[in-house]
Amino acid sequence: MTQDRPDKAELLDAVIEYLTDRLFPTLDGELAFHARVSANLLTILKRELELGESMDADELTRLRTLLQQEHGSLDDLTRDLAAQIRAGGLDDKRDDVLADVKRTVEDKLKVVSPKYLER
What pTM value is reported for the model? Predict the structure, then answer.
């Protein structure tokens, strides 16, 4: 139920804040490392919840256009794209393929490590 408060993102924010503001200062060594990794994973999960659905829909639209296929799941079309690239079936659409792959990688980086896009 998305109308209930706190929502998923707010719950994740609360745990992340607890880990970083309250728990980190009391830990050192391996425990601090694992707490930091946990906070980073929760941050990735939060971005995935916020961005993932629309990114997947955009990627599906791009793949359907690029491959000229009206049907198929994102996974199926991604496998088809890879197979066609390997077989040379999209050599005539090289620029379009590169643009699609670049956009897909950028979207993935927005979720897992947005700092890389600032470089």
Answer: 0.81
What is the pLDDT of the chain when averaged over all its residues? 95
Banded model confidence at residue 2, pLDDT cuts 50, 70, 90: low
Enter the tokens of residue 96.
């379009």
Rg from Cα positions in the chain: 19
Cα separation, 90 vs 83, in Å, equals: 10
pLDDT of residue 69: 96
Contact by Cβ (8 Å): 47, 99: no
State the Cα–Cα distance between residues 115 and 118, nearest whole angstrom: 5
CB–CB of 64/72 below 8 Å? yes
Domain ranges of the chain: 8-118
Angle (nearest 5°) at CA 109 between 79 and 9: 105
